[in-house]
Description:
With 364 residues, the chain is an alpha/beta fold. The chain folds into two domains: 14-93 and 165-360, ATPase, nucleotide binding domain (Nucleotidyltransferase, domain 5); 95-163, Dna Ligase, domain 1 (2-Layer Sandwich), CATH 3.30.1490. The chain has helices at residues 49-55, 64-78, 106-117, 166-178, 189-197, 235-246, 250-259, 268-296, 315-323, 346-349, 354-360, and strands spanning 14-19, 23-32, 35-45, 84-89, 95-102, 128-138, 146-147, 153-154, 156-165, 182-188, 205-210, 215-221, 224-231, 302-306, 327-329, 336-337. Helix 2 (64-78) packs across helix 4 (166-178). Residues 6-11 have low confidence and may be disordered.
Amino acid sequence: MNFGFFKNFLSKGTLGIDIGTASIKVAELSRESGHFKLLNYGIFQLENQEEAIETKQKITKLPDQDIVWGIKELISRSGVKSKNVVASIPSFSTFSTTISLPYLSEKDLAKAIPFEAKKYVPIPIDEVILDWSIINLASDHAGGGQALAGGRVTPTVEVFLAAVPKHETERYKKIMTAAGLNLAALELENIALIRSLIGNDLSPVAIVNIGGRSTSILVVDRGFERISHNYEIGGFEITKSIARSMGVSLSRAEEFKRTVGLKSDSTKVVGEAMISLLDMIVFESKKTITTYENNKGAKIQKVFLSGGVANMPSFLEYFKSKINLETAISNPFVRVVYPKELAKMIPELSPTFSIAVGLAMREV
């Protein structure tokens, strides 16, 4: 899948930059003999985590010069050499959906989509950059084609449609240029997740990406996003709940979340403080999955958990028991060659770097 909002030529080595709600993550990959090779990685956290949690401050809302400084610091400390960048744009800053249209020709489809998009995109079309990709074509009436006079059938095409505000794309260009980098492509973070976690798997699966600000739930079928839902609960809210229940500082609550989590032999107050929020995430995940299964007659085969919360002790077991589906922690490094000394760290790094690795895997 090659889906982005602008492209330049890349030299050997690609840097994926994931500007998230609590941190900036980078992954530098090269491709050698048909295999991805990890050259470098790094993460830059907001310095005042307590203030960020309290106010839901987001790196994407910081002044541009602060983001530029953070990127420069991260690249300097991690030893990244590549200048060619594929960056992600957060799902809450974009709009995407799947639509069905009569299919006559590529030319006619290209003309029809901007008009059709007006029905779905919540801001004026002239203020966004549109991109689209055909994800399915039904050529027979039973498969979804439209019957016409004389028994002829017009094929119906499913199109994945995405829109990004023009001011956002211009902002990212300026940030990367100021950081001394070449922005080769700007990509939806969900597409990067699909590339790093799903690969060539065509079976229906779900990805639950729990970020600092929100949780993104998407269903992927035949390698394409079919339905997605953003839910406004993430790691920040979980940390705040622990702090309130235990009467501790937000930084201390964050430490409890990372080290204690839902372990049965640890402080019960920590787990109890999170249960209602985690159950809401499970409920929203179930609802999104069930909606797709009922509408498409498909059966989700597996759920991948991504984002920093996925590393929380015993969270995988809890989520799996509640959703009653095969569930795994995301591992974007499964198709990446990395140094042997990183082997013990890969399970911890995987959920956090899923988007950055997927970006660096992009072929432009």
